[in-house]
Each structure stands twice: as structure tokens, then as C-alpha cells.
Amino acid sequence: MMGFLLYFALIVLIPLWAQFRVKSTYAKYSRVPSSTYRTGAEVAREILNANGLYHVNVEQGHGYLSDHYDPRSKTVRLSPENYHGHSIAAAAVAAHEVGHAIQDAEGYAFLRFRHALVPVANLGSNVSWILIMIGIFAQLSGMLLLGIIFMAAAVLFQVITLPVEFNASNRAMNQVVSLGLVANKEEGEARKVLNAAALTYVAAAAVAVLELLRLVLIYTGMTRSED
After folding, report:
1. Which pTM was predicted?
2. Which residue ranges run through the membrane (predicted)?
């Protein structure tokens, strides 16, 4: 019982801690203007142009920290506070999303692999728990195993996301420094914003892997009892 409570605490607390870190770090540096005083939209546009990506659009999105790159429409969408903001946080986040656009243009292998996994991961997320719950409550090990396989596809998507995000952040830092979009003394602050954001992906992947391992142990115990 104690082990279950500890496990439950971990899968709840890890994401909460990661969310707290990213929000607190972002809030701190969103109040610190960059020395170049460019908006996030201007930072994104300048990096895109410097890399010959004139066809990629920069648009204002909706919602708090809703920043993303849409590979279908070739558009970088920045949340209102980052699109209009002049802060170090806005510059870092904008550069990170442009990092994904550069990955897309270069055919970055992990990004292509992640895109290929999207339909499988979506199916796994929607179907896995139905099969898993039927397998556990009906004591059908085959059904549970099928659910675990579907879930593994979703977990693989989470894991593959890590190198994609870290690579985008590295590209972002290289771009903002080489183009002079942040001063050298601000590089560490911009990196703190990106590192905090990366924690959310690390936390999500860690929780997904832990849950998958727990289900594998349940399956192993079920098959042993059937022997």
C-alpha cells in the first residue's frame, strides 16, 4: 500500500513540479526586457530570414504559453505575450519555435520520426486504457498485453519528443547569440527559460515510462498466476 501511495505521489508531483518551474521561470524573465528590445515576433522573423525560411509565417496565437510551430501550414504561432513582448523570455520562446521550423526545413530525423508516430500515438492514447482496464478487471492477460502495446506507442512518442525539444532549444540559443538578438550576458537567462520548458517534456516522458513499467509488472504477475 505504501509503495502504491509513493508511486501515485511521484506521477502527480513530477508534472506539477515541472509546471511550477516553467511558469515561475517564465514569469520571472517575462518581466526582464532584452537589451535589443525586439518583440518575440521580430526575433522569430529575423531568425527565419537569416536561415532562408521566408515562406514560414509568424502569427499571433491564442492562450497563455500556447506557442508552437505548425509544420502543415509552415507557421510559427506565438502566444500574445510572446508575440508582442520585448522580454528575454519572449525572445527565447520565439527562437525555440523557430528551431522547430529549421528542423522541419532540414528534415531533422527525430522530428520526421515523431511526425510519423502521431497517428499511431493518438490511436494508442485513445485505445490503450480501454483495453488495459478490460484486461485487468476481466483478468484477460492477452487483452492487457494488447493495451500495453498500444500504450507503448504513445510512450515512444513522448520519449522521441525529448531530442526534438532539446535540439530546438540548442538551435534557438545558437541563433539568438550569433545574430545578436540577445546580449552575451543574457544568454544564461534565456537558457534558463528554455531549460525550464524542457522539464515539462522530461516529466511527461518519465511519468509515461513509469506507468508503462507498472503495467508490464501487472501483466507479468497475471501471466504467472495463470500458469
Report:
1. 0.88
2. 116-137, 144-164, 198-219
